[in-house]
Amino acid sequence: MSSGREGLAEMIEASVTGTIENMAFVEVLAAQPAAEESAPGEQLMAAQLIHEPYQGEVWLCMSLPLVQELTENVYALSAEEITDAMLEDVVAELLNTITGEVVKKVLPDDCSFKLGLPEMGEDSFLSTGPPTVLCAFEVDGRPFTVSAFLDAFFQGSD
Amino acid sequence: MLTILIVDDSRTARMFIKRCLEIAVSQDAEFLEAANGKEALGILKAQPADLVVSDLNMPVMDGDMLVKFMKASPKLNEIPIMIITSAGNPAKETELLALGAFAVLSKPVSPATITETLGSLIQKEEGAYE
Known about the structure:
By secondary structure, chain A is of the alpha+beta class. Chain A has four helices and seven strands, in the order αβββααββββα. Chain A is 35% helix and 25% strand. In chain A, a hairpin with a 2-residue loop joins β6 and β7. The radius of gyration of chain A is 15 Å and the shape is globular. By secondary structure, chain B is an alpha/beta fold. In chain B, 48% of the residues lie in helices and 19% in strands. In chain B, α4 links the parallel β4 and β5. Chain B is globular. Classes of the chains: A alpha+beta, B alpha/beta.
């Protein structure tokens, strides 16, 4: 591994802020994880598997108003023109880009990797325990989280 | 007028890349879109393109396979292919360049990065004619 587990949160923060600021032109700030979970329906969640060289998974969970704001920025459309499919596609593409950035930072340069396709929904495909790391952020006071299950990447390196 | 085919399963990614290309290309361009490599090959059969910009990780036919098909086709092997992917790193870039892609960029891309990459393509093509 190019870096230990202790640097993972910083890698995720850099990947998340770089991706969202570049694609949606908003400032992302690190935040404390919320004590209470949002009610179902108030958020969109996507998950993406990492297939090679180790198995892992990354999740992105965003409040619906935040997804709406980002989608309006990305598509340069008004709220009335945004469809549910666009909202889901933006979350999936943000997650896809963030996952790639995180895995690139975790692995050595000479190591190829293979990602699955982002999937919408709250089901976890892989993890049976708590995530390796959970990072909370906000955009204009609207919260979101990125969590990753990357234990296999660090086995033997702790 | 340039014809550019953007291949990505994400509508958001296609739209974002198109916007970057519109800024980067200093002339009128027509943009075609495909959601995977198979769709892209179907479009290219009917209409030639000056540039193909493709993702790697797609359902049905991925970007690796699209590059292989295009480079094996006498009709399509001259079309430059730029890969823009979230799954790129130096090892993957070397592999794709060996397959015949002319550039491999990592998501998220910026108009500046695409402008610089297209500039190097134009210089390369001009050099080939000298």
